[in-house]
Specification:
Length: 198
């Protein structure tokens, strides 16, 4: 058998394998968006994807791996890419709101299930640590790395804050403006207190 034939077969297998993986991921996203992933069995995920349970396990060893793969899929989200490129607080806040809004259906399920589902709990913990790293990076860039400023920006950019303000009826634009104004007001009042203390 020629080497070219072997290469073609391997590429064909890799393409089919990638397509199967993508079908499984689509099924997980659908179940998350519907709010039923956490009650779903591995068999139900496999059925939704149109694959056998054994095939699903060839790609993902556990439910945690399925949630990890969803997390990995966020890496190509333009809003998350913008967060990682942000160089000032306004940009960070606007990009964070865009990211939360673009993945809200999935994130709502993962955050709500974090108390009872180990996979969701792990996802939320990793997501918070990642966001903290990005917030710390931007705060260093703007010269505001004190604990109080960091705590405020972590609160302003949290999914919980986004979710509460969304439930209060604010649009993404209104939400972004409110968060930016809150950050600016905090900076102004802190600067005024510092001037009075001097």
């Amino acid at each position: 058998m020629s080497t070219a034939g072997q290469v073609y077969r391997v590429r064909g297998r890799n393409k089919r394998s990638q397509q199967t993986r993508e079908r499984i991921m689509r099924a997980v996203r659908e179940l998350l968006e519907e709010g039923s992933f956490h009650e779903s069995t591995v068999e139900q995920v496999a059925d939704r994807a149109g694959v056998s349970r054994a095939t699903l396990y060839q790609h993902f060893r556990s439910r945690l791996d399925l949630v990890d793969a969803i997390c990995d899929s966020f890496a190509v989200n333009p809003a998350l890419i913008a967060i990682r490129a942000a160089v000032d607080l306004d940009e960070l806040i606007a990009s964070t709101v865009r990211f939360w809004a673009s993945e809200d259906a999935i994130l709502a399920q993962l955050y709500e299930a974090a108390a009872i589902d180990p996979a969701a709990k792990d996802f939320v913990a990793r997501q918070r640590a990642d966001r903290r790293g990005e917030v710390e990076r931007v705060m260093r860039l703007i010269g505001r790395s004190d604990k109080r400023s960091l705590a405020l920006v972590m609160t302003l950019t949290s999914y919980e804050t986004f979710s509460e303000l969304r439930r209060a009826g604010l649009s993404d634009r209104q939400l972004t403006e409110l968060l930016r104004d809150t950050a600016a007001t905090s900076r102004s009042s802190r600067a005024a207190r510092t001037r009075r203390a001097s």
